Amino acid sequence: MASANKKAKELEDPGSGEGDARDYDVEIQKTLEEIDGCQNQIDGLNEKASDEILEVEKKYNKLRKPYFQKRNDIIKRIPNFWVTAFVNNKEIAEILEEDEEDALRFLNKLEVEEFEDIKSGYRINFYFDENPYFENDVLTKEFHLGSSGDPASQSTSIRWKEGADLTKKAKTKAPLKGRKRPLKHRSFFDWFTDHGDPSSDEIAELIKDDMWPNPLQYYLAPDIDVENGIEGDGEECESEEDEDEEDGADDGDEGGEGEEGDDSIVVVEDDVDEDDDEDEAVNDEDDGVNEEDDLLVDDEGDREEGEEPE
Questions:
Q1: Where is the sequence biased in composition, kind Basic and acidic residues (predicted)?
Q2: How far apart are CA 296 and CA 230, in angstroms?
Q3: Contacting residues for 101 by C-beta, under 8 A, at least 6 apart
């Protein structure tokens, strides 16, 4: 029978390449088992929460559906609503060719339809008016779990009108110069017909989780930027720069005027000095005259004193 100080369990240390074992005594082993029991209970609650959240999501999907339909009916009153929303979304705009943007002007309705159990997949339905590009009224791209249990996708076969196949036009175009990283999809319809990696389809997830719940935010994107002061901030920055430049110019002018002012001050000082020199000269002359007068007076006085004895 093993003592309490002997090994209760040995686990291979993943940090060691020689298969060294980590030893646990009985007390630690019991503690680890308790932690594992708590963790199993937490995992069970998480699974139960996920199931209940799915049921709640199913319920509210049904409640939201008539409002989505009502919103689509209202949106039809606004020309080019959906193409505007797409163009205002940076990720979608990156893959939109000019011809594709024109084709999407005929898009009158967008709809995301989740499967009943939610977990198994969803469809994105694009409804079009009659247009010069294809015959289809509805184009659908679907994401679901394949027979192997892995994510898979499929889409409607587009019946292009003669000479209007936009996927062929996109393939003949060279990639844009200066692009830092190549795009996974070269164009919008290239994305629609591609089924290479449905598990990481960023465009589909963006439409499903962002565009579809609230397309108005993208239709109003430029107006929202203005309201948030994005453009105003730019104008303020420009005006501040202009003011700084003007202040710099004014400072330069003031500096120039100051130098001229200094010269004029010097000139004035020179004039004052000249006037002072003239005054001093006049004073010197006066002093000289006064000295001469004093000498004359002194001479006359001496003469008078010299004549008195006679």
A1: 159-168
A2: 97
A3: 83, 86, 87
Nearest-5° angle of CA 181, CA 184, CA 190?
Answer: 135
pLDDT per residue, tens digit, the chain (310 aa), is: 444 444 444 444 444 445 455 778 899 999 999 999 999 999 999 999 999 999 999 999 999 999 999 999 999 999 999 999 999 999 999 999 999 999 999 999 999 999 988 788 999 999 999 999 999 999 999 999 887 888 999 999 999 999 999 998 765 554 444 444 344 557 999 999 999 888 889 999 999 999 999 999 999 987 665 556 555 454 555 555 555 555 555 555 554 444 444 444 444 444 445 555 555 554 555 555 455 455 444 554 444 444 444 4
Tokens at residue 128, please?
Answer: 């079009």
The torsion angles phi and psi of 76, rounded to 5 degrees, stand at -60, -20
Give the C-alpha separation, 199 to 202, whole Å: 9
Asked if 151 and 170 touch (Cβ cutoff 8 Å), the reply is no
- Largest Cα–Cα separation, the chain: 168
pTM across the whole model:
0.61
Structure tokens at 123: 């469809």
* Length of the chain in terms of residues written: 310
Give, as one character, the DSSP assignment of residue 211: I
